[in-house]
Amino acid sequence: MAKLILGPSGSGKSTLINKRFIGFKNLIFGYELENKKYDFLKFWKKTKISKDSIVHYNILNNLSKQNFNFDEEKFLQNDKLLKKILSYNKLFDEVIILVTPIKELISRATSREKVEDNIADKYDNEFWLNHIKKTNFENLYKELLLILDVNNLKYEILYSSSNDFRKTKKDNIKKNLAGIYE
What we know:
The protein is an alpha/beta fold. It contains 6 helices and 8 strands. A hairpin with a 2-residue loop joins strand 7 and strand 8. Helix 3 (102-111) runs antiparallel to helix 4 (125-134). The protein is globular. The two termini are 30 Å apart. The relative contact order is 0.20.
């Protein structure tokens, strides 16, 4: 069955996938599912999630489509791409949410050079650094968990720090964001 890995930019989604799902073949980055009006190379893009997919989704993805002003209360509810991904909810047997200390997200956004190891595009450090600093992650995770609950998706929350992943609870997210693991 399909896997869904959720977290902000720099939270360790690719690292987790490389550690836990060795030999995966059908990795889909969330943006590959976007509908683009003038995408002449659409036949190369992945447009559908299947039972053997691993979906890698940046929960801050919607920021790349908006100005710096966004409705923080309904940020994920207004994310059309997340809605599209969650429309495949019956395929997902595993949903993993990564919670990374904000200081680590800032550090990673500052030093990162490429979007992904296998994607040569340059990482927009300034863009992501500004958004990470401005985001209320505690509220963002509350909204994400509510959306997953409404969609009847069971999930596992992992504290992601220094390339290590440990189970955590939703009651610990605020502490986890501050760099405290319990």
